[in-house]
């Protein structure tokens, strides 16, 4: 067994100021009184993350509009789950996000993928129901895998050769069954602020926007998760705090184990003492529009990972979304950094929109650009470009179908090709 070196328990200067600033943020948020009084009910809860947050994910899986009417059995199941939530504060759901993709230009002969992401999610409100300081336990069990004989989505994306703008659906061949989210989420200040601590999905909290999820409109990394963003494993031990200090401005901070591995629980976090941390400030026209109309800025720092041989890095992220008449949701995202920390892109930018002619279907289009990190990808990098359009139809209350088309240019890791076309079909089943 590896012994803990006491010298490694002291935080670096960078991490110390992050923790000190988190304390200041906590004091500011706790001292601030709500600008507008709210009517709080049993469903009031602090949502400090994006759509990949477990509680928010359960809410997003509920669809009131669909092309075909659902069965009576499904309605009975929904009624029973609603009663369970109302009486005991417990919500849960099962989901399967299955996708097949085909690419016309790849490094080797295999040009198709088929697999998915399978989840059991639960959120149990145990403290403060009906108040402004709710506390809940969040759990998510998950498996991401390819079907036998097929590449995973990420493997296919690597075969296309895009270093930064990976067009493959975000599941891998080696993400075994795990419980990557086991956390306590506590709200306070009339649930305008909160913190989360435990095993966390960092992608639910770091620079989150409405499209930062597997289950919405896009597949390409450029639109789901900015490639100039640092990463660690899903299920990293960490802590997050965010909250509004005025009606329109919020502050936040977060810190994670930098060596976490997706699908594996890392027990050597304190021995390694290497962290990913970020600070965030954001603006929204009003608290009620915070999910759709906002702009946010993040500064991040990631320690060098000595055993992995990866240098330290730091950088910035800017994201903005704006909705029009509940039918159009637009976004722009930018990021830049020093090229370290194993980052995919040194600089990147993207923008796009989702249009809903009817509540049960949507058409989306987006474009992105990235300059891959030479430190990560090696010499010979090229500016990469990606374009994507998709059509999503909510067929039944629990089943949706998406057709996806991508066109990529200048794959850094496949210099023999100048472009590639990737088509895909995605099905989501929620229970």
What value does the average pLDDT take?
84
| Stretches with pLDDT under 50, minimum 5 residues | 1-10, 34-43
Overall structural domain count: 1
The main sheet orders its strands as: 1-2-3-4-5-6-7-8-9-10-11-12-13-14-15-16
Overall strand count? 16
Report the oligomer: single chain
Instruction: Tell me the span between the first and last alpha carbons.
Output: 43 Å
Named CATH architecture:
Beta Barrel
The shape is globular
Computed Rg: 21 Å
User: Could you name the CATH topology?
Assistant: Porin
CATH class: Mainly Beta
Query: What order do the SSEs take from the amino end to the carboxyl end, as H and E?
Result: HHHEEEHEEHEEHEEEEEEHEEE
Summarize the structure in short.
The protein has 431 residues and is mainly beta. 15% of the residues lie in helices and 43% in strands.
How would you explain this protein's 3D organization?
The protein is mainly β and 431 residues long. It has one domain (14-430): Porin. Helices cover 15% and strands 43% of the residues. It has helices at residues 13-31, 54-60, 72-88, 153-160, 221-224, 269-272, 374-377, and strands at 90-103, 112-127, 135-146, 175-188, 193-200, 236-244, 249-257, 275-283, 294-302, 313-324, 328-337, 345-358, 361-372, 384-396, 399-409, 419-430. The protein has a 16-stranded antiparallel barrel, surrounded by 4 helices. Residues 1-10 and 34-43 have low confidence and may be disordered.
């Amino acid at each position: 067994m590896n012994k803990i070196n006491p010298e490694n328990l002291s935080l670096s200067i960078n991490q110390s100021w992050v923790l000190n600033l988190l304390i200041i943020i906590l004091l500011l948020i706790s001292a601030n009184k709500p600008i507008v009084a709210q009517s709080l009910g049993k469903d009031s809860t602090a949502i400090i993350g994006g759509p990949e947050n477990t509680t928010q994910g359960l809410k997003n899986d509920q669809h009131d509009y669909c092309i075909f009417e659902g069965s009576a059995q499904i309605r009975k199941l929904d009624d029973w789950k609603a009663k369970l939530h109302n009486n005991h504060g417990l919500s849960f759901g099962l989901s399967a996000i299955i996708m097949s993709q085909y690419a016309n230009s790849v490094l080797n002969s295999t040009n198709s993928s088929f697999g998915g992401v399978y989840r059991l999610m639960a959120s149990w409100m145990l403290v403060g129901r009906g108040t402004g300081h709710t506390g809940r336990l969040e759990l998510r069990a998950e498996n991401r895998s390819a079907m036998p004989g097929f590449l995973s989505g990420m493997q296919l994306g690597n075969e296309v050769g895009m270093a930064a703008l990976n067009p493959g659906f975000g599941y891998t061949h080696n993400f075994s069954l795990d419980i990557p989210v086991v956390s306590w989420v506590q709200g306070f200040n009339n649930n305008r602020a909160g913190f989360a601590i435990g095993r966390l999905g960092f992608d639910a909290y770091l620079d989150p926007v409405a499209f930062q999820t597997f289950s919405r409109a896009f597949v390409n990394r450029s639109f789901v998760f900015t490639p100039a963003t640092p990463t660690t494993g899903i299920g990293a031990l960490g802590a997050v705090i965010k909250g509004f200090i005025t009606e329109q401005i919020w502050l936040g901070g977060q810190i994670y184990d930098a060596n976490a591995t997706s699908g594996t629980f890392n027990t050597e976090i304190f021995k390694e003492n290497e962290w990913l941390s970020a600070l965030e400030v954001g603006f929204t026209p009003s608290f009620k529009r915070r999910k759709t109309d906002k702009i946010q800025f993040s500064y991040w720092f990631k320690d060098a990972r000595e055993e992995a041989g990866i240098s330290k890095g730091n950088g910035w992220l800017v994201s903005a979304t704006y909705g029009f008449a509940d039918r159009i949701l637009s976004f722009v995202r930018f990021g830049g950094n020093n090229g370290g920390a194993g980052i995919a892109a040194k600089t990147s930018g993207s923008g796009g929109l989702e249009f809903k002619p009817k509540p049960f279907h949507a058409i989306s289009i987006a474009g992105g650009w990235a300059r891959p990190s030479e430190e990560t990808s090696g010499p010979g990098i090229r500016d990469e470009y990606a374009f994507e359009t998709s059509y999503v139809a909510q067929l039944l209350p629990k089943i949706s179908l998406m057709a996806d088309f991508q066109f990529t240019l200048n794959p850094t890791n496949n210099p023999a090709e100048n472009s590639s076309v990737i088509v895909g079909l995605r099905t989501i089943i929620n229970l």
